[in-house]
Design goal:
heterodimer, A: Elongation Factor Tu (Ef-tu), domain 3, Rossmann fold, seven-stranded mixed sheet, six-stranded antiparallel sheet, 8 helices, 15 strands, globular, B: alpha+beta, four-stranded antiparallel sheet
Chain lengths: 284, 343
Protein backbone atom coordinates (compact mmCIF):
# COMPACT_ATOMS: atom_id res chain seq x y z
CA UNK A 1 0.00 0.00 0.00
CA UNK A 2 1.43 3.40 -0.90
CA UNK A 3 1.40 6.36 1.42
CA UNK A 4 -1.31 8.05 -0.69
CA UNK A 5 -3.63 5.13 -0.02
CA UNK A 6 -2.73 4.86 3.65
CA UNK A 7 -3.44 8.38 4.82
CA UNK A 8 -6.53 10.51 4.80
CA UNK A 9 -5.21 13.90 3.85
CA UNK A 10 -7.36 16.76 5.14
CA UNK A 11 -5.20 19.32 3.32
CA UNK A 12 -6.10 18.34 -0.23
CA UNK A 13 -8.54 20.91 -1.61
CA UNK A 14 -11.43 19.79 -3.82
CA UNK A 15 -12.15 21.41 -7.18
CA UNK A 16 -15.20 23.68 -7.38
CA UNK A 17 -16.58 25.84 -10.17
CA UNK A 18 -17.55 29.46 -9.89
CA UNK A 19 -21.17 29.19 -11.01
CA UNK A 20 -21.88 32.90 -10.84
CA UNK A 21 -20.33 36.04 -9.48
CA UNK A 22 -21.46 39.62 -9.26
CA UNK A 23 -20.32 42.75 -7.49
CA UNK A 24 -22.39 43.73 -4.47
CA UNK A 25 -20.67 47.05 -3.87
CA UNK A 26 -17.16 48.26 -4.65
CA UNK A 27 -14.61 45.57 -3.72
CA UNK A 28 -17.32 43.31 -2.31
CA UNK A 29 -18.33 40.43 -4.51
CA UNK A 30 -20.88 37.65 -4.30
CA UNK A 31 -19.74 34.20 -5.44
CA UNK A 32 -21.73 31.05 -6.02
CA UNK A 33 -19.55 27.97 -6.18
CA UNK A 34 -20.31 24.30 -6.67
CA UNK A 35 -18.28 21.11 -6.36
CA UNK A 36 -17.48 19.79 -9.83
CA UNK A 37 -18.65 16.38 -8.70
CA UNK A 38 -22.43 16.84 -8.68
CA UNK A 39 -23.03 14.14 -6.14
CA UNK A 40 -20.53 15.76 -3.82
CA UNK A 41 -22.22 19.12 -4.40
CA UNK A 42 -25.61 17.76 -3.40
CA UNK A 43 -24.36 15.82 -0.40
CA UNK A 44 -22.01 18.49 0.96
CA UNK A 45 -23.12 19.09 4.53
CA UNK A 46 -22.50 22.12 6.69
CA UNK A 47 -24.22 24.28 9.28
CA UNK A 48 -24.68 28.05 9.54
CA UNK A 49 -21.58 29.63 11.07
CA UNK A 50 -19.09 27.24 9.53
CA UNK A 51 -16.36 28.32 7.15
CA UNK A 52 -14.30 26.92 4.29
CA UNK A 53 -10.70 27.37 3.16
CA UNK A 54 -10.60 28.62 -0.42
CA UNK A 55 -7.50 27.59 -2.27
CA UNK A 56 -5.88 29.09 -5.34
CA UNK A 57 -2.87 27.14 -6.59
CA UNK A 58 0.26 29.25 -6.41
CA UNK A 59 -1.44 31.96 -4.41
CA UNK A 60 -2.52 30.27 -1.23
CA UNK A 61 -5.43 29.62 1.05
CA UNK A 62 -7.67 31.77 3.21
CA UNK A 63 -10.74 31.14 5.36
CA UNK A 64 -14.19 32.42 4.30
CA UNK A 65 -17.50 32.06 6.05
CA UNK A 66 -20.35 30.44 4.15
CA UNK A 67 -23.12 32.91 3.38
CA UNK A 68 -25.68 30.40 2.12
CA UNK A 69 -27.91 28.05 4.07
CA UNK A 70 -27.63 24.26 4.12
CA UNK A 71 -31.41 24.20 3.73
CA UNK A 72 -30.79 25.15 0.09
CA UNK A 73 -28.17 22.55 -0.92
CA UNK A 74 -26.12 22.25 -4.10
CA UNK A 75 -24.50 25.66 -4.27
CA UNK A 76 -22.33 27.46 -1.74
CA UNK A 77 -22.52 31.24 -1.56
CA UNK A 78 -19.75 33.50 -0.34
CA UNK A 79 -19.46 37.25 0.03
CA UNK A 80 -15.87 38.31 -0.34
CA UNK A 81 -14.16 41.64 0.12
CA UNK A 82 -11.09 42.26 -2.01
CA UNK A 83 -8.57 42.80 0.72
CA UNK A 84 -5.58 40.47 0.35
CA UNK A 85 -3.54 38.25 -1.90
CA UNK A 86 -6.03 35.38 -2.21
CA UNK A 87 -9.05 37.62 -2.75
CA UNK A 88 -7.25 39.71 -5.36
CA UNK A 89 -6.46 36.56 -7.33
CA UNK A 90 -10.03 35.35 -6.83
CA UNK A 91 -11.38 38.56 -8.37
CA UNK A 92 -9.44 37.73 -11.56
CA UNK A 93 -11.50 34.56 -12.03
CA UNK A 94 -14.50 34.46 -14.34
CA UNK A 95 -17.65 32.37 -14.24
CA UNK A 96 -17.06 28.65 -14.67
CA UNK A 97 -13.39 28.93 -13.70
CA UNK A 98 -12.25 26.17 -11.40
CA UNK A 99 -10.98 27.04 -7.95
CA UNK A 100 -10.41 24.81 -4.92
CA UNK A 101 -11.78 24.51 -1.44
CA UNK A 102 -11.68 22.34 1.64
CA UNK A 103 -14.00 22.22 4.61
CA UNK A 104 -16.47 22.90 6.08
CA UNK A 105 -14.66 23.78 9.30
CA UNK A 106 -15.45 25.12 12.73
CA UNK A 107 -18.43 24.89 15.01
CA UNK A 108 -21.72 26.52 14.10
CA UNK A 109 -24.37 28.72 15.64
CA UNK A 110 -26.05 27.01 18.57
CA UNK A 111 -29.28 26.42 16.73
CA UNK A 112 -30.82 24.00 19.21
CA UNK A 113 -30.48 26.61 21.93
CA UNK A 114 -32.37 29.08 19.70
CA UNK A 115 -35.32 26.85 18.88
CA UNK A 116 -38.71 28.14 20.02
CA UNK A 117 -37.08 31.34 21.19
CA UNK A 118 -37.05 34.87 19.81
CA UNK A 119 -34.01 35.81 17.75
CA UNK A 120 -32.33 39.19 17.53
CA UNK A 121 -29.79 39.19 14.72
CA UNK A 122 -27.46 42.17 14.47
CA UNK A 123 -25.13 42.66 11.51
CA UNK A 124 -22.75 45.43 10.64
CA UNK A 125 -21.22 45.82 7.17
CA UNK A 126 -19.54 42.69 5.87
CA UNK A 127 -20.50 40.94 9.13
CA UNK A 128 -23.78 40.14 7.45
CA UNK A 129 -22.10 37.32 5.48
CA UNK A 130 -22.05 34.57 8.12
CA UNK A 131 -25.40 35.79 9.43
CA UNK A 132 -27.00 35.47 6.00
CA UNK A 133 -26.53 31.71 6.39
CA UNK A 134 -28.45 31.45 9.63
CA UNK A 135 -30.93 34.10 8.48
CA UNK A 136 -32.18 31.88 5.66
CA UNK A 137 -31.78 28.76 7.76
CA UNK A 138 -34.23 30.20 10.28
CA UNK A 139 -36.61 31.37 7.57
CA UNK A 140 -36.49 27.95 5.87
CA UNK A 141 -37.28 26.27 9.20
CA UNK A 142 -39.58 29.05 10.34
CA UNK A 143 -41.84 26.96 12.59
CA UNK A 144 -38.92 26.02 14.83
CA UNK A 145 -38.37 29.59 15.97
CA UNK A 146 -40.46 32.37 17.51
CA UNK A 147 -40.19 36.03 16.62
CA UNK A 148 -37.26 36.99 14.39
CA UNK A 149 -35.70 40.46 14.33
CA UNK A 150 -33.00 41.29 11.80
CA UNK A 151 -31.01 44.48 12.45
CA UNK A 152 -28.53 45.53 9.81
CA UNK A 153 -26.36 48.61 9.69
CA UNK A 154 -24.36 49.95 6.75
CA UNK A 155 -22.49 53.16 6.13
CA UNK A 156 -24.90 54.39 3.44
CA UNK A 157 -27.65 52.93 1.23
CA UNK A 158 -25.17 52.34 -1.60
CA UNK A 159 -22.84 50.55 0.81
CA UNK A 160 -25.56 48.14 1.87
CA UNK A 161 -24.75 44.57 0.93
CA UNK A 162 -27.57 42.54 -0.67
CA UNK A 163 -29.62 45.73 -0.75
CA UNK A 164 -32.36 44.56 -3.13
CA UNK A 165 -32.56 41.20 -1.45
CA UNK A 166 -32.87 42.64 2.03
CA UNK A 167 -35.39 45.32 1.00
CA UNK A 168 -37.46 42.51 -0.45
CA UNK A 169 -37.01 40.54 2.77
CA UNK A 170 -38.51 43.43 4.72
CA UNK A 171 -41.84 42.77 2.97
CA UNK A 172 -42.14 39.32 4.53
CA UNK A 173 -44.54 38.81 7.40
CA UNK A 174 -42.39 36.30 9.30
CA UNK A 175 -39.40 38.54 9.96
CA UNK A 176 -39.02 42.06 11.27
CA UNK A 177 -36.25 43.84 9.37
CA UNK A 178 -34.73 46.99 10.80
CA UNK A 179 -32.12 48.72 8.66
CA UNK A 180 -29.94 51.69 9.46
CA UNK A 181 -27.45 53.69 7.45
CA UNK A 182 -25.07 56.22 8.93
CA UNK A 183 -25.55 58.62 6.01
CA UNK A 184 -28.34 58.66 3.46
CA UNK A 185 -26.26 60.44 0.81
CA UNK A 186 -27.97 60.81 -2.58
CA UNK A 187 -30.62 58.20 -1.92
CA UNK A 188 -33.79 60.29 -1.72
CA UNK A 189 -36.27 57.46 -1.11
CA UNK A 190 -34.45 55.74 1.77
CA UNK A 191 -37.38 54.58 3.89
CA UNK A 192 -35.41 53.15 6.79
CA UNK A 193 -33.39 54.54 9.68
CA UNK A 194 -30.53 56.96 9.57
CA UNK A 195 -28.01 56.41 12.35
CA UNK A 196 -25.98 53.65 13.91
CA UNK A 197 -27.20 50.07 14.09
CA UNK A 198 -27.50 50.48 17.88
CA UNK A 199 -30.24 53.09 17.33
CA UNK A 200 -32.48 50.30 15.99
CA UNK A 201 -32.80 48.69 19.41
CA UNK A 202 -35.41 51.21 20.48
CA UNK A 203 -37.72 49.85 17.77
CA UNK A 204 -37.69 46.36 19.21
CA UNK A 205 -40.87 45.34 21.04
CA UNK A 206 -40.67 44.08 24.58
CA UNK A 207 -38.67 40.86 24.75
CA UNK A 208 -38.45 38.19 27.40
CA UNK A 209 -34.66 38.14 27.79
CA UNK A 210 -34.49 34.51 28.94
CA UNK A 211 -36.40 33.52 25.82
CA UNK A 212 -34.26 35.59 23.48
CA UNK A 213 -31.11 34.66 21.60
CA UNK A 214 -28.89 37.24 19.99
CA UNK A 215 -26.57 36.56 17.08
CA UNK A 216 -24.13 39.27 16.07
CA UNK A 217 -21.36 39.85 13.57
CA UNK A 218 -19.67 43.01 12.43
CA UNK A 219 -16.44 44.96 12.47
CA UNK A 220 -14.48 44.71 15.79
CA UNK A 221 -15.58 48.21 16.82
CA UNK A 222 -19.26 47.28 16.59
CA UNK A 223 -19.26 44.49 19.19
CA UNK A 224 -18.78 46.68 22.22
CA UNK A 225 -21.73 48.95 21.47
CA UNK A 226 -24.09 46.22 20.32
CA UNK A 227 -23.29 44.06 23.34
CA UNK A 228 -24.07 47.01 25.62
CA UNK A 229 -27.53 47.23 24.06
CA UNK A 230 -28.10 43.49 24.40
CA UNK A 231 -27.04 43.55 28.03
CA UNK A 232 -29.47 46.44 28.62
CA UNK A 233 -32.18 44.08 27.39
CA UNK A 234 -30.88 41.61 30.02
CA UNK A 235 -30.21 38.88 27.50
CA UNK A 236 -27.99 36.29 29.27
CA UNK A 237 -24.35 36.45 28.19
CA UNK A 238 -24.33 32.86 27.01
CA UNK A 239 -27.31 33.58 24.74
CA UNK A 240 -25.33 36.19 22.81
CA UNK A 241 -23.49 34.46 19.97
CA UNK A 242 -20.87 36.03 17.75
CA UNK A 243 -18.57 34.79 15.04
CA UNK A 244 -14.93 35.84 14.90
CA UNK A 245 -12.18 36.28 12.36
CA UNK A 246 -8.57 35.13 12.80
CA UNK A 247 -5.53 34.37 10.69
CA UNK A 248 -5.62 30.67 9.80
CA UNK A 249 -3.37 28.37 7.84
CA UNK A 250 -4.95 24.97 8.42
CA UNK A 251 -8.55 25.21 9.63
CA UNK A 252 -8.19 22.04 11.71
CA UNK A 253 -6.30 22.99 14.86
CA UNK A 254 -2.74 22.25 13.75
CA UNK A 255 -1.02 25.44 12.60
CA UNK A 256 -1.56 27.40 15.81
CA UNK A 257 -2.34 30.83 14.35
CA UNK A 258 -5.91 31.24 15.58
CA UNK A 259 -5.23 30.03 19.13
CA UNK A 260 -6.89 31.82 22.06
CA UNK A 261 -5.49 30.38 25.29
CA UNK A 262 -6.61 26.75 25.06
CA UNK A 263 -9.11 27.29 22.25
CA UNK A 264 -8.64 27.33 18.52
CA UNK A 265 -10.91 29.66 16.60
CA UNK A 266 -10.96 27.12 13.77
CA UNK A 267 -12.24 24.14 15.76
CA UNK A 268 -13.68 25.57 18.98
CA UNK A 269 -15.05 28.60 17.09
CA UNK A 270 -15.54 30.67 15.02
CA UNK A 271 -18.84 31.00 16.91
CA UNK A 272 -18.37 32.02 20.53
CA UNK A 273 -20.73 33.43 23.12
CA UNK A 274 -20.20 36.71 24.91
CA UNK A 275 -19.66 34.65 28.06
CA UNK A 276 -16.71 32.91 26.33
CA UNK A 277 -15.17 36.27 25.50
CA UNK A 278 -15.20 37.24 29.15
CA UNK A 279 -12.96 34.24 29.87
CA UNK A 280 -10.70 34.72 26.90
CA UNK A 281 -9.46 38.25 26.99
CA UNK A 282 -8.07 38.24 23.50
CA UNK A 283 -11.34 37.17 21.87
CA UNK A 284 -12.76 40.58 21.04
CA UNK B 1 7.78 -3.56 30.50
CA UNK B 2 10.77 -5.83 29.87
CA UNK B 3 14.14 -4.64 31.04
CA UNK B 4 17.33 -6.27 29.80
CA UNK B 5 20.99 -5.78 30.35
CA UNK B 6 23.64 -5.14 27.72
CA UNK B 7 27.39 -4.74 28.17
CA UNK B 8 28.51 -1.33 26.94
CA UNK B 9 31.10 -2.77 24.56
CA UNK B 10 28.29 -4.11 22.35
CA UNK B 11 26.61 -0.74 21.89
CA UNK B 12 28.06 0.38 18.55
CA UNK B 13 27.65 -3.01 16.92
CA UNK B 14 24.09 -3.24 18.16
CA UNK B 15 23.16 0.26 16.98
CA UNK B 16 24.67 -0.44 13.59
CA UNK B 17 22.48 -3.54 13.31
CA UNK B 18 19.41 -1.33 13.57
CA UNK B 19 19.91 -0.22 9.96
CA UNK B 20 17.61 -3.09 9.08
CA UNK B 21 14.77 -1.07 10.61
CA UNK B 22 15.42 2.14 8.72
CA UNK B 23 17.95 4.90 8.09
CA UNK B 24 19.85 5.78 11.23
CA UNK B 25 19.51 9.27 12.66
CA UNK B 26 21.00 10.75 15.81
CA UNK B 27 22.91 13.62 17.36
CA UNK B 28 25.93 14.61 15.27
CA UNK B 29 28.26 17.55 15.87
CA UNK B 30 28.67 19.90 12.90
CA UNK B 31 30.58 23.17 13.22
CA UNK B 32 30.48 22.77 16.96
CA UNK B 33 26.70 22.43 17.08
CA UNK B 34 25.02 19.21 18.18
CA UNK B 35 22.12 18.42 15.87
CA UNK B 36 19.81 15.55 14.92
CA UNK B 37 20.88 14.32 11.50
CA UNK B 38 21.04 11.28 9.31
CA UNK B 39 24.11 9.26 10.29
CA UNK B 40 26.68 8.53 7.63
CA UNK B 41 28.45 6.16 9.97
CA UNK B 42 27.76 5.06 13.51
CA UNK B 43 30.99 6.64 14.78
CA UNK B 44 29.54 10.10 13.94
CA UNK B 45 26.89 9.55 16.59
CA UNK B 46 27.47 11.64 19.69
CA UNK B 47 25.41 10.48 22.63
CA UNK B 48 25.98 12.81 25.54
CA UNK B 49 24.21 14.75 28.28
CA UNK B 50 23.95 17.73 25.95
CA UNK B 51 20.67 18.21 24.10
CA UNK B 52 20.87 18.93 20.35
CA UNK B 53 20.21 22.62 19.68
CA UNK B 54 17.02 21.99 17.69
CA UNK B 55 14.79 19.38 19.34
CA UNK B 56 13.64 16.06 17.97
CA UNK B 57 10.49 17.74 16.61
CA UNK B 58 12.44 18.75 13.50
CA UNK B 59 12.41 15.13 12.35
CA UNK B 60 8.60 14.88 12.71
CA UNK B 61 7.48 18.42 12.04
CA UNK B 62 10.21 19.40 9.56
CA UNK B 63 11.27 23.04 9.34
CA UNK B 64 10.20 23.08 5.71
CA UNK B 65 8.74 20.44 3.43
CA UNK B 66 6.36 20.03 0.51
CA UNK B 67 2.83 18.97 1.47
CA UNK B 68 1.12 19.04 -1.89
CA UNK B 69 1.99 19.31 -5.56
CA UNK B 70 -0.33 21.19 -7.86
CA UNK B 71 -0.86 21.51 -11.58
CA UNK B 72 -3.71 22.46 -13.93
CA UNK B 73 -5.82 19.58 -12.65
CA UNK B 74 -5.49 20.26 -8.97
CA UNK B 75 -3.64 19.18 -5.88
CA UNK B 76 -2.05 15.86 -5.00
CA UNK B 77 -0.26 14.86 -1.81
CA UNK B 78 3.51 14.64 -1.63
CA UNK B 79 4.66 12.14 0.96
CA UNK B 80 8.33 12.15 -0.03
CA UNK B 81 9.23 13.46 3.42
CA UNK B 82 8.17 10.13 4.96
CA UNK B 83 10.99 7.64 5.37
CA UNK B 84 11.68 4.61 7.59
CA UNK B 85 14.07 5.75 10.27
CA UNK B 86 15.64 4.73 13.53
CA UNK B 87 16.40 7.75 15.68
CA UNK B 88 19.09 7.07 18.24
CA UNK B 89 20.16 9.04 21.30
CA UNK B 90 16.94 10.79 22.25
CA UNK B 91 16.66 12.16 25.78
CA UNK B 92 13.48 11.76 27.85
CA UNK B 93 12.55 15.46 27.48
CA UNK B 94 12.52 15.19 23.70
CA UNK B 95 10.40 12.03 23.82
CA UNK B 96 7.98 13.83 26.13
CA UNK B 97 7.98 16.72 23.66
CA UNK B 98 7.00 14.31 20.92
CA UNK B 99 4.19 12.88 23.03
CA UNK B 100 2.84 16.44 23.40
CA UNK B 101 3.05 17.02 19.64
CA UNK B 102 1.21 13.71 19.13
CA UNK B 103 -1.78 15.25 20.90
CA UNK B 104 -1.83 18.14 18.45
CA UNK B 105 -0.86 16.54 15.16
CA UNK B 106 -2.44 13.12 15.64
CA UNK B 107 -5.65 14.44 17.20
CA UNK B 108 -8.53 14.14 14.74
CA UNK B 109 -8.25 14.90 11.91
CA UNK B 110 -4.68 13.59 12.01
CA UNK B 111 -1.96 15.34 10.09
CA UNK B 112 -0.87 12.70 7.56
CA UNK B 113 2.73 13.93 7.34
CA UNK B 114 3.41 13.88 11.07
CA UNK B 115 1.53 10.62 11.47
CA UNK B 116 3.46 9.06 8.58
CA UNK B 117 6.78 10.14 10.01
CA UNK B 118 5.77 8.92 13.45
CA UNK B 119 4.61 5.51 12.27
CA UNK B 120 7.75 4.97 10.23
CA UNK B 121 10.21 5.99 12.93
CA UNK B 122 11.68 4.00 15.78
CA UNK B 123 12.95 5.87 18.81
CA UNK B 124 15.99 4.64 20.69
CA UNK B 125 16.13 6.74 23.86
CA UNK B 126 19.17 7.32 26.03
CA UNK B 127 19.44 8.47 29.62
CA UNK B 128 21.26 11.67 30.48
CA UNK B 129 22.50 13.72 33.39
CA UNK B 130 20.89 17.13 33.88
CA UNK B 131 22.62 20.28 32.67
CA UNK B 132 22.54 23.50 34.69
CA UNK B 133 19.41 24.59 32.78
CA UNK B 134 17.49 21.32 32.98
CA UNK B 135 14.05 21.67 34.45
CA UNK B 136 12.74 18.23 33.66
CA UNK B 137 12.49 17.20 37.31
CA UNK B 138 10.04 20.07 37.85
CA UNK B 139 8.05 19.24 34.74
CA UNK B 140 8.02 15.54 35.64
CA UNK B 141 9.61 14.66 32.32
CA UNK B 142 13.02 13.46 33.51
CA UNK B 143 12.01 9.84 33.11
CA UNK B 144 9.98 8.24 30.35
CA UNK B 145 7.59 5.31 30.36
CA UNK B 146 6.25 5.43 26.82
CA UNK B 147 6.99 6.81 23.38
CA UNK B 148 10.15 4.80 22.65
CA UNK B 149 11.01 1.44 21.18
CA UNK B 150 14.13 0.96 23.29
CA UNK B 151 15.50 3.09 26.08
CA UNK B 152 19.10 2.75 27.28
CA UNK B 153 20.08 3.74 30.80
CA UNK B 154 23.82 4.21 30.96
CA UNK B 155 25.34 2.61 34.04
CA UNK B 156 28.97 2.82 32.84
CA UNK B 157 30.08 -0.71 31.98
CA UNK B 158 26.59 -1.84 31.12
CA UNK B 159 23.20 -0.51 30.04
CA UNK B 160 19.78 -1.41 31.33
CA UNK B 161 17.55 -1.47 28.30
CA UNK B 162 13.79 -0.85 28.55
CA UNK B 163 11.84 -2.50 25.74
CA UNK B 164 8.96 -0.16 24.95
CA UNK B 165 7.34 -1.71 21.90
CA UNK B 166 7.00 -4.85 19.90
CA UNK B 167 9.31 -3.32 17.30
CA UNK B 168 11.85 -2.70 20.06
CA UNK B 169 11.59 -6.34 21.00
CA UNK B 170 12.24 -7.33 17.38
CA UNK B 171 15.36 -5.16 17.43
CA UNK B 172 16.70 -7.01 20.43
CA UNK B 173 15.85 -10.37 18.89
CA UNK B 174 18.10 -9.45 15.96
CA UNK B 175 21.13 -9.51 18.29
CA UNK B 176 19.88 -11.66 21.12
CA UNK B 177 23.43 -12.64 22.08
CA UNK B 178 24.11 -9.10 23.39
CA UNK B 179 21.26 -9.06 25.87
CA UNK B 180 20.99 -10.72 29.26
CA UNK B 181 17.63 -11.47 30.81
CA UNK B 182 18.94 -11.65 34.34
CA UNK B 183 19.39 -8.37 36.10
CA UNK B 184 21.15 -8.97 39.42
CA UNK B 185 20.54 -7.30 42.77
CA UNK B 186 23.81 -5.48 42.32
CA UNK B 187 22.63 -4.14 38.96
CA UNK B 188 19.46 -2.88 40.58
CA UNK B 189 21.52 -1.18 43.28
CA UNK B 190 23.60 0.47 40.59
CA UNK B 191 20.44 1.73 38.92
CA UNK B 192 19.00 3.13 42.16
CA UNK B 193 22.32 4.78 42.91
CA UNK B 194 22.33 6.34 39.45
CA UNK B 195 18.83 7.73 39.92
CA UNK B 196 19.72 9.23 43.27
CA UNK B 197 22.86 10.78 41.88
CA UNK B 198 20.87 12.19 39.00
CA UNK B 199 18.07 13.51 41.19
CA UNK B 200 20.62 15.36 43.30
CA UNK B 201 22.13 17.08 40.28
CA UNK B 202 19.18 19.31 39.36
CA UNK B 203 19.93 22.98 39.95
CA UNK B 204 16.60 24.39 38.79
CA UNK B 205 13.23 23.98 40.43
CA UNK B 206 9.91 25.52 39.46
CA UNK B 207 6.50 24.76 40.89
CA UNK B 208 4.52 24.34 37.69
CA UNK B 209 1.33 23.50 39.57
CA UNK B 210 0.86 27.15 40.45
CA UNK B 211 1.57 28.50 37.00
CA UNK B 212 -1.94 28.40 35.48
CA UNK B 213 -3.32 30.47 38.35
CA UNK B 214 -0.33 32.79 38.43
CA UNK B 215 -0.62 33.39 34.68
CA UNK B 216 -4.27 34.28 35.09
CA UNK B 217 -3.69 36.53 38.11
CA UNK B 218 -0.72 38.26 36.50
CA UNK B 219 -2.32 39.07 33.17
CA UNK B 220 -1.97 42.81 33.75
CA UNK B 221 1.26 42.61 35.75
CA UNK B 222 4.12 45.01 34.97
CA UNK B 223 6.43 42.02 34.56
CA UNK B 224 5.07 41.75 31.02
CA UNK B 225 6.11 45.33 30.28
CA UNK B 226 9.57 44.47 31.47
CA UNK B 227 9.89 41.33 29.34
CA UNK B 228 8.23 42.94 26.31
CA UNK B 229 10.70 45.81 26.55
CA UNK B 230 13.58 43.37 26.20
CA UNK B 231 12.15 40.85 23.72
CA UNK B 232 13.67 41.01 20.23
CA UNK B 233 10.82 39.05 18.58
CA UNK B 234 13.50 36.82 17.08
CA UNK B 235 11.48 33.66 17.59
CA UNK B 236 14.41 31.53 18.70
CA UNK B 237 12.48 30.37 21.79
CA UNK B 238 9.82 28.89 19.56
CA UNK B 239 12.32 27.24 17.22
CA UNK B 240 14.15 25.44 20.05
CA UNK B 241 11.03 24.52 22.02
CA UNK B 242 10.15 20.81 21.67
CA UNK B 243 6.42 21.53 21.95
CA UNK B 244 6.11 24.51 19.58
CA UNK B 245 4.20 23.40 16.52
CA UNK B 246 3.11 26.58 14.70
CA UNK B 247 3.58 26.62 10.98
CA UNK B 248 2.69 28.64 7.94
CA UNK B 249 1.92 27.51 4.41
CA UNK B 250 3.23 29.00 1.19
CA UNK B 251 2.69 28.19 -2.46
CA UNK B 252 5.63 28.18 -4.83
CA UNK B 253 5.46 27.87 -8.61
CA UNK B 254 7.98 25.72 -10.44
CA UNK B 255 10.52 27.90 -12.22
CA UNK B 256 9.79 26.36 -15.59
CA UNK B 257 6.02 26.04 -15.52
CA UNK B 258 3.47 28.63 -14.56
CA UNK B 259 0.73 26.14 -13.74
CA UNK B 260 2.76 23.70 -11.68
CA UNK B 261 4.15 24.09 -8.22
CA UNK B 262 4.26 23.09 -4.62
CA UNK B 263 2.43 23.92 -1.43
CA UNK B 264 5.03 24.02 1.34
CA UNK B 265 4.74 24.01 5.09
CA UNK B 266 7.34 25.78 7.17
CA UNK B 267 7.81 26.71 10.80
CA UNK B 268 6.26 29.94 11.96
CA UNK B 269 6.62 31.71 15.30
CA UNK B 270 4.03 33.43 17.46
CA UNK B 271 6.79 35.92 18.31
CA UNK B 272 6.73 37.30 14.76
CA UNK B 273 4.76 40.49 14.28
CA UNK B 274 2.59 39.15 11.45
CA UNK B 275 1.59 35.98 13.30
CA UNK B 276 -1.99 37.16 13.92
CA UNK B 277 -2.23 39.72 11.12
CA UNK B 278 -5.28 39.33 8.89
CA UNK B 279 -5.93 40.69 5.42
CA UNK B 280 -7.05 44.28 5.63
CA UNK B 281 -4.38 45.09 8.19
CA UNK B 282 -5.97 44.22 11.52
CA UNK B 283 -3.38 42.64 13.84
CA UNK B 284 -4.86 40.71 16.75
CA UNK B 285 -1.48 40.59 18.50
CA UNK B 286 0.36 43.64 17.32
CA UNK B 287 2.37 44.20 20.50
CA UNK B 288 5.34 42.16 21.72
CA UNK B 289 3.68 41.96 25.09
CA UNK B 290 0.61 40.25 23.64
CA UNK B 291 2.78 37.78 21.78
CA UNK B 292 4.96 36.95 24.79
CA UNK B 293 1.87 36.46 26.92
CA UNK B 294 0.43 34.15 24.31
CA UNK B 295 3.53 31.95 24.36
CA UNK B 296 3.74 31.70 28.13
CA UNK B 297 -0.02 31.28 28.47
CA UNK B 298 0.19 28.45 25.99
CA UNK B 299 3.14 26.74 27.70
CA UNK B 300 2.26 27.27 31.35
CA UNK B 301 -1.51 27.40 31.35
CA UNK B 302 -3.52 26.35 28.29
CA UNK B 303 -1.59 23.22 27.42
CA UNK B 304 -2.26 21.88 30.90
CA UNK B 305 -5.92 22.71 30.48
CA UNK B 306 -6.10 20.75 27.24
CA UNK B 307 -3.79 17.85 27.92
CA UNK B 308 -3.28 17.75 31.69
CA UNK B 309 0.40 18.69 31.67
CA UNK B 310 2.29 21.92 31.01
CA UNK B 311 3.61 22.58 27.52
CA UNK B 312 7.13 22.77 28.96
CA UNK B 313 9.16 19.55 29.03
CA UNK B 314 12.03 21.11 30.94
CA UNK B 315 14.76 20.68 28.32
CA UNK B 316 16.28 24.07 29.16
CA UNK B 317 16.78 25.08 25.53
CA UNK B 318 15.01 28.44 25.89
CA UNK B 319 17.28 29.14 28.86
CA UNK B 320 20.35 28.51 26.73
CA UNK B 321 19.05 30.20 23.59
CA UNK B 322 17.22 33.45 24.37
CA UNK B 323 19.68 36.30 23.79
CA UNK B 324 17.97 38.52 26.37
CA UNK B 325 17.20 35.97 29.11
CA UNK B 326 13.47 35.65 28.61
CA UNK B 327 12.85 32.00 29.34
CA UNK B 328 10.68 29.66 31.29
CA UNK B 329 12.84 30.14 34.41
CA UNK B 330 12.99 33.94 34.43
CA UNK B 331 9.29 34.26 33.57
CA UNK B 332 8.16 31.67 36.13
CA UNK B 333 10.35 33.28 38.78
CA UNK B 334 8.94 36.72 38.01
CA UNK B 335 5.40 35.32 38.14
CA UNK B 336 6.10 33.66 41.49
CA UNK B 337 7.94 36.52 43.18
CA UNK B 338 5.83 39.22 41.47
CA UNK B 339 9.10 41.03 40.79
CA UNK B 340 11.00 41.74 37.62
CA UNK B 341 14.38 40.00 37.55
CA UNK B 342 17.37 41.79 39.01
CA UNK B 343 19.76 43.05 36.35
Amino acid sequence: MTASETYQNPFIPEPVRIVHQRDLIKDHRFFQIRHIDMQRAMSFQYMPGQFIMLSLPGVGEAPFCIASTPSRPGILELGIRKVGKVTEALYQKVDNDVIFMRGPYGNCFKIDQMKHKDIVMVAGGLGVMPLRSILYYVLDNRDDFDRFFFLYGARSPDMMLFKEEFLQLAKRRDIECLYAVEKVGDEKDWAHHTGMVTALFKDLPELDPLKTNAVICGPPVMYKFVIQELLKLKIPKNQIQMTLERRMKCGIGKCGHCVLENLYTCIDGPVFTYWDTLHFRELI
Amino acid sequence: MRIMKMQSKFLDVFLESLEKFGSLYGPVRRNGVLRFEKLEKISDLEISDEVPMIPLKKLFHPMKFTMLQFDERGFSPDYSVIERRVIIGVHPCDIHGLLRLDEIFMGKPADPYYTGLRENSSIIGFSCMPSKSSLCKSTDTDMIEEGFDLFFVNLEEFYLVWVGSSRGYDMIREREEFFEENVSHEDIDRYVEWREKRNAKFEQKIDFNNMPDLMELSYNSEIWNYFAGKCLSCGQCTMVCPTCNCYTVTDVFDVTNEAKGKRNRMWDSCMFVDYSLVAGGHNFRGTRQDRLKLWYTHKLKSFGHEYGRPGCVGCGRCVETCPVDINVITVSTALTTREVPKQ
